[in-house]
Amino acid sequence: MIRETLASLTAEENLRTLPEIAPEGIYIEHEGKRYLNLSSNDYLGIACRDMHREFMHEIDESDAFLLSNPSSRLITGNSPEYTRLEQTLSDLYGGKAALVLGCGYMANSGILPAITEKGDLILADKLVHASLIDGLQLCKAEWQRFNHNDMDHLERLLVRHRGHYRNVWIVTESIFSMDGDCAPLATLQALKTKYDLKLYVDEAHAFGVCGPGGRGLAAATGTDCDILVATLGKAIASQGAFVITDGEIREFLVNRLRTLIFSTALPPISLRWSDYVIRRLPQMEPWREHLNLLSHRLTGSPSSTHIIPLMAGENHRAIEMSKKFREAGFWVMPIRYPTVPQGKARVRVSLNAALNTGAIVKFKEVWNSIG
């Protein structure tokens, strides 16, 4: 079965490999060649700046323990750095409770199975991340998916199921990872109020990048999330993830969230680095403005985000486009099924604030020449 599957993936031009990459600021090196990196999730360009050096100057030589944490948080792994980071996140989000996890996948695959049960209903956007889909499949609650950003379809489902379930959860991303478009959070907020819903928003691609102080799209739109999840491994250039919720739900998750309970804690140095960056997020507004400028320059649209899909359709076309971009010195990767639906392969561009407009102008010229 394994051999046949690999042969089938090869024939479909859908076989994945792990390229060895060496980062060099805004560039990467691969097989002896250097490329401008347009595939990074380091949206603020933090890894390209001097922040790491400044941070390391603050680390005392006696802090060797910072490099490891071989236990779960509930045993001996709940280091003081967790408390400090969670307090920083709570302060950032106006006093709401914060809980730090090992990664975004652990958050999204674990939270919904923990907080829902039989008698609940989950309605999730068709294009939510694979980690959320895996979480849905672990749930005892019933779940359905509504057409992407289709609020009419969602409301029809709400009317159909009204009164039949104890709790109804709406699940969405705020900025979608593969299409780069935004959820209509203002409309979701109105539906939440109208139907007494609970709202779960994944801000992985918005946290740090948009909203007041970098708090994300929910903060920008005044959306009241019962569960807000974001990652520390994208715009913050660290590792881990966090949940913003109320104190009661946080306490419940500490006792029921399997991806927290049965996982090794993060090393203190990563927690301290995350805290260092997040405390500086409000001062990074010029970087966020520059990132918006780059996006608008590339697409010509004032509503575009830093994630820009260049649609190819079929796998071979996406691979061909990616190859031509690499030949021109740009590293952008083909995105294929099952990451995106069949027939909707694409090259995914993700911009970062360390890039300059000249590089984007050149990339657009290459993009136009490829067609």
Automatic annotation (TrEMBL):
Task: Tell me which Pfam families the record gives.
Answer: Aminotran_1_2 (PF00155)
Where in the numbering of this chain does the Aminotransferase class I/classII large domain appear?
35-357
Swiss-Prot/TrEMBL catalytic activity: 6-carboxyhexanoyl-[ACP] + L-alanine + H(+) = (8S)-8-amino-7-oxononanoate + holo-[ACP] + CO2
PROSITE patterns reported in the protein's UniProt record: AA_TRANSFER_CLASS_2
Please give a single GO biological process term from the UniProt record: biotin biosynthetic process
Asked if Transferase is a keyword of the record, the answer is yes
SUPFAM superfamilies xref list: PLP-dependent transferases (SSF53383)
Q: What is its EC number?
A: 2.3.1.47
Q: Which cofactors?
A: pyridoxal 5'-phosphate
- Functional pathway: Cofactor biosynthesis; biotin biosynthesis; Lipid metabolism
Source species, domain of life: Bacteria
Keyword Transferase set for record = yes
Cite a single GO MF annotation.
8-amino-7-oxononanoate synthase activity
Keywords carried by this UniProt record: Biotin biosynthesis, Pyridoxal phosphate, Transferase
| Matches recorded under PANTHER family | 8-AMINO-7-OXONONANOATE SYNTHASE, CLASS II AMINOTRANSFERASE/8-AMINO-7-OXONONANOATE SYNTHASE
Q: Give the protein family.
A: Belongs to the class-II pyridoxal-phosphate-dependent aminotransferase family. BioF subfamily.
Assembly, in brief, is: Homodimer.
Q: Can you say what this protein is called? A: 8-amino-7-oxononanoate synthase
Lineage in the entry? Bacteria, Pseudomonadati, Bacteroidota, Bacteroidia, Bacteroidales
